[in-house]
Amino acid sequence: METTTRQDPKAESTRPDEPEFDLYTIPSYSSWFRWNDIHETERAAMREFFDGSSVTRSPKIYKEYRDFMINRYREDPSTRLTFTEVRKSLVGDVSLLNKVFQFLNQWGLINFGADSARIESENEYKDEVRVEDGPPNGIRVVADPNSSKPFPASHAGAPLGADVRRSKLSPLASYSDVFGELGKRKGILCGSCGGNCESGRYQHDKDSYVLCVKCFKDGKYGNKSVDDFKLHGSSVSDGKQRDAWTEAETLLLLESVSRHGDDWDIVAQTVKSKTKLECISKLIELPFGEFISSYNLGKDPASGLSGNGDGGKDVFPSLPEQQDMIKSENVMSQQANGNEQRGDDADKVPPLKKQCVSYSSGSGISIMRQIARISSMVGDDITATAAKAAFAALCDEASCPSDSFNNEEDFANELWPAMDQSVSERWLICAEYNYACLD
Amino acid sequence: MKPLPSTSSKTPVKFRMPTSENLVPIRLDIEVGGQRFKDAFTWNISDPDSEVSVFAKRTQKDLKLPLAFATQIAQSIQTQQTEFRSYKGQEMLTGEKIVPIKLDLRVNRTLIKDQFLWDLNNFDSDPEEFSKTFCNDLGIEDPEVGPAVAFAIREQLYEIAIQSVATARESRNAKKGRRGEYSSISRSTGAALDLMKLFSNRYSGVRKRKEWDVFEPMVDMLSNEEVAALESMVERKPR
């Protein structure tokens, strides 16, 4: 905040023999202030003094209040002037006096240089209000209400009640908080080609620069000397490689969960390369993982599961449609154009995805309605943030120019011309979900 | 923001609390079987959700009072509410009305004495905000002081509002030609200060210095013994 120093003309006029002036600081946005005048800003903010509605409120009286308060403050500029201190010396309605006081306070004409002890105490009070997200401690979140067995937790192995992933986010969780860990599991990346170094890497002695085996062999040392690199054998066993989820596996998982819900035997069979346990833990880790399974419990009574019923349904709309959007999203990101979702893309996707597309086309819920439902689950700011994050991630992932996504409104409007801004933002949250699956 | 009524004519206004929120001060002083319960709070009379009986039951439970208190509390609140509502629709005199409000109360260990002016015409006034500033500026830590101060202000405003209804009625009767009421009209401005006298200091907004003490708040903290002494004194006084 800029400040201007103003000479106090009163000091000048009452002490003409003194060569020095008192300097008081007020913010630059208050430079309109004049001792011998009342500015438009003041007139507008405190009309009661200027509309002639009462003999107790006149411009003269306003000026007296104002000048008294400012002078009183300037007697000791380092101390915060309180309203209670001045109101005893001024005649008039205390609410009105407080209005003048607050006006001067906000414009920095008083208390501008004073200690902010009071502000801190007010902030302290605000900090005491803690927003807690997720289920409270001591409550277990169980996928199937009938089974008393809680989900096994994430790799951390903490009890589920305390570690439902989503609940641990602070109110100011950033994109990297949410998605950072998904990225981390990619493992160590080569500094040259950006690929995975799981089969062995060359570590620079002095800094954290890492080269994968291939780049090392190709001689891509960057500007470092070849002698500085030491080979680290692949510390990852085959087991670890098995643990990483590829994009195809993730999509398979989602598809089978949506079809078979809680039946992990079938799910694990579908996702051939992962065990039952791995499937379950992967699902929880996905941002909407729990919702998918709990939703499907309600959706498919035929599979013999009694579900959360309404609760599940409200929470998450039809997954297959979701996947449909996801897959077409995928394709679009690769192609960086805005085709119609279903028709065109179905031709271009590989067989796996095409299969999913046709599966979902039987479902009757429109995408628009789903979007609306999703967006009603989360707040607008979350939606917007997630959308932005998703786009950034998509652009990075698919290495496509972000230009095509930058004009988000147009991009969405191409698909749904009638859609307004808020709905297109909601569509973008699906993009976020899509990214979560691409791991 | 509500436009302020013109004060050139004493235009009557429908009865209401002259504050931005229409909160009614409720005072409870109930004695049942040797146990005495005193309390004071504000009630939002236009809130359809606030149920007196629920409140009374909850209070009795929370404070572990005998069951009889619940009905008495509810009764007392309802009586006061009815009284407030009886003024509704009646007119009260407005006109320039800057009244002195005096604070003289003890809350737990804090003793407060204060005096200031309040504009009855200012329907945007907020006793709660005043009281919050009051406690902040004076560094009062006891959280019960704020509401007590706000309550005290409201109570006085309520009294004055009721009075102004009465005087409005009188002046209406007087206009109808009843001669004997003139004296009461002059009395009607008794609560409000003479505006000329208000700005006694050369018609200035700044008060005479010697009067600053009168209008300065005094806050004292009592020791536990003093509090006990005061409370026993109140108890012994016959009601």
From TrEMBL, chain A:
GO molecular function: DNA binding
Occurrences of domain Myb-like (ranges): 237-279
Record's keyword terms, sorted: Developmental protein, DNA-binding, Nucleus, Transcription, Transcription regulation
Ranges for domain SWIRM: 24-121
CC annotations in GO: nucleus
Pfam families reported for this sequence: Myb_DNA-binding (PF00249), SWIRM (PF04433)
InterPro entries: Homeodomain-like_sf (IPR009057), SANT/Myb (IPR001005), SANT_dom (IPR017884), SWIRM (IPR007526), WH-like_DNA-bd_sf (IPR036388)
Domain SANT positions: 240-291
SUPFAM superfamilies: Homeodomain-like (SSF46689)
Protein's recorded name: SWI/SNF complex subunit SWI3A
Organism for this UniProt entry: Linum tenue
UniProtKB/TrEMBL annotation, chain B:
Main localization category: nucleus
Top-rank lineage group of the source organism: Eukaryota
Protein name from the UniProt record: Bushy growth protein
Keywords linked to the UniProt accession: Nucleus, Transcription, Transcription regulation
Location relative to the cell: Nucleus
Cellular component terms per the entry's GO annotation: nuclear chromosome
GO annotation, biological process: chromatin remodeling
Residues in coiled coil: none
The organism of origin for this protein: Linum tenue
Family per similarity comment: Belongs to the SNF5 family.
